[in-house]
Write a structure and sequence with these properties.
homodimer; 341 residues; alpha/beta; 434 Repressor (Amino-terminal Domain); Rossmann fold; 3 domains; four-stranded parallel beta sheet; 13 helices; 15% strand; DNA-binding
DNA sequence: ATCGAGTATGACAGCGCTGTCAAACCTTTT
DNA sequence: AAAAGGTTTGACAGCGCTGTCATACTCGAT
């Protein structure tokens, strides 16, 4: 229950230091000694006191997940991956939302981060979008000399580690899929202007269309903001005119795609027979909708997991800064699958 | 940046202990001394080292949120409330999912908890459903002498603190609302058998019906499992026969209500004109659906917040065990609002 | 046998803080 | 003016662990 290293040392008949060495997998311990210590530790149900370890080694065995993201779904997945990663290294994750109303006097994000990590001296920080693009937060982290990894940052900063996904490529593949299904007139709904993914996804769409020698007409591209409502509005415009109506609509995220589906169903347009719809993100919504949404599954869990690995894996200890590009997955479901084609 | 108590003590011309007293708001410090110390601390940007505090006081300033819940949405909200609570007390929250595949050898939940909290000796634990009903987990916590609070447990255990919501009353009010709208034949879809809320919500439904002298026919009650699919199946059965078709359907959660809406729309039944639908939980889905769902908003965030308060609030320090009953909210939206009624 | 070069182990200080207990300093009361 | 009781302060040990450095032990090569 409350066995300490000293206890284990006494029972095993060795010094505290040797026990410490065994428990931390340090070299230069006789195999026999190691075994014995391990056996005693198990028997005594020893488990280290993190506070003491931390105090002695000036590490905290804690990683912070700093976020400021309205999407609980996204954060939950990142977190889930990050926690699993932490467990592999005996670490724990502390989620730290920024910009809570509890501190109205908080001026800048930079200060907020400073204060936060001053109190809780973690060994590393994972920054989720849109914070991964916040120069203030990054500056704070650098000034405090805390290792950190960006999740899905928009720009490529040199000297900073990051985990990301290729949005352009994903959008391109989705578009190619649509084109392969025989679609020539494809509507596109853009995302929120300030979100970095917006431009990337549109870029991928444009590239694929260009490669297939298909023209992207202005009236086929609508500005949305990632909300269901904006998808509805855009869809109404896109589907308004029966003559110029596209045969497929590619929405920059699932919520907007859901808006499209709902408009189509109201207008009596059968999906996917008369209109293919696809989204992006593979939110839970995608499977709930009828028909189920064809969409892009982002490696969100994996990004959390990899971010931790970059921070903690001793094998990567001396790699200065690396960017992990993780694989997305095209999830083809009924909303964009021409039956029998 | 790295100022210690010793530094502050030196500059302020007092002993470490006095600084400690000031920083922890202990009594018996001259006002003048307190002021001076505070000033120096601010000037030096002192902030305590949690590991050292923890080691010395055998507290960790950490609370664990232990869960094993498939619904990220629910957990995210609890967590959000709990984090806000923690901040008020200078604490931090560590989410700890149970039953991850990282430890396949894990036998019982009891052991898992034991191991977990042995490693990370937190000052308190918040248990979310369905873990709040797990006697194994509770036993482990009790044996380790770690204070804990149950979130939405099904039974009323004496001597254990809990935060909960009155599911029965909520279901009753929702049913009453439907009855007030003139419905006499109301279909009900039950939730997952093993989930404690299932029975409670059904109970509330039955009570309201009985109070209004309405009979609950067997064919109007279907077993679901909280999934969208099960809502679809149940709705198909409920709506199959045009003659015995209910005029309203009360699904035990939003996902199943979404299933009902989708079936209705496929069958050409207009919601809410020909069929009122309501759900339970007020998930994000409820607002995305068309029409938007009438549902019950649970005080999930508040439960997280209150749980922390019970654990940490010094004012409640000596209260042995208390149960906080938090208010739900009936959210009336289009899916169950007879136009112009 | 003797030396050197690992390899294995232990003694001990100290990480930054708090708890304990004693000392010093006020008041007020007699 | 002394005793009593309260308030304010500080000295010091020690929480459980790791880092440093010294010591002891092992083994092949001379």
């Amino acid at each position: 229950m409350k066995a300490t290293i000293t206890d284990v040392a006494k029972v095993a008949g060795v010094s505290m230091k040797t026990v410490s060495r065994v428990l931390n997998n340090e070299p230069n311990v006789a195999a026999k000694t190691r075994e014995r210590v391990l056996a005693v530790a198990t028997e005594l149900k020893y488990s280290p006191n993190l506070a003491a370890k931390g105090l002695a080694s000036s590490r905290s065995y804690l990683l912070a997940l700093v976020y400021d993201n309205p999407s609980p779904y996204y954060i939950a997945k990142i977190q889930s991956g990050a926690i699993d990663g932490c467990r592999k290294f005996g670490y724990h994750l502390v989620p730290e939302p920024l910009g809570l109303p509890d501190d109205a006097a908080e001026t800048t994000q930079e200060e907020a981060v400073h204060r936060l990590l001053h109190r809780l001296p973690v060994d590393g920080v994972i920054l989720t979008p849109p914070l991964s693009d916040s120069s203030g937060v990054i500056k704070a982290l650098e000034s405090m000399n805390i290792p950190f990894v960006l999740v899905a940052p928009s720009g490529q900063k040199t000297g900073i580690s990051a985990v990301k996904m290729d949005d352009v490529q994903a959008a391109r593949e989705m578009t190619n899929f649509l084109i392969a299904q025989g679609h020539k007139s494809i509507g596109f709904i853009k995302g929120h202007l300030e979100h970095s993914a917006t431009a990337l996804r549109y870029e991928g769409f444009q590239e694929a269309m260009a490669e297939a020698n298909l023209k992207v007409h202005d009236h086929e591209v609508k500005q949305g903001d990632f909300s269901f409502r904006s998808g509805v509005v855009a869809a109404e415009e896109l589907l308004e005119d029966v003559n110029t109506r596209p045969t497929a609509i590619f929405a920059s995220n699932d919520d907007m795609a859901a808006g499209v589906v709902s408009v189509a169903s109201r207008l009596g347009i059968v999906v996917p027979d008369e209109l293919s719809v696809c989204g992006f993100d593979d939110t839970p919504l995608a499977k709930i909708l009828f028909p189920q949404l064809t969409t892009v599954q982002q490696p969100i869990y994996e990004m959390g997991f990899e971010a931790v690995k970059i921070l903690l894996d001793p094998a990567l200890k001396n790699t200065p800064a690396l960017t992990r590009n993780l694989d997305f997955k095209l999830v083809v479901r009924d909303s964009a699958l021409i039956q029998g084609s």
